[in-house]
Amino acid sequence: PVLYSYFRSSCSWRVRIALALKGVAYDVVPVNLLKDGGQQFSAEFKAVNPMQQVPALKIDGITLSQSLAIIHYLEETRPNPRLLPQDPKKRAQVRMIADHIASGIQPIQNLGILKQIGEKKVEWAQNCITSGFQALEQILQHTAGRYCVGDEVSMADLCLVPQVANAERFKVDMAPYPIITRINKALLELEAFKVSHPSRQPDTPADLRA
Question: Pathway of this protein (predicted)?
Answer without folding.
Answer: Amino-acid degradation; L-phenylalanine degradation; acetoacetate and fumarate from L-phenylalanine: step 5/6
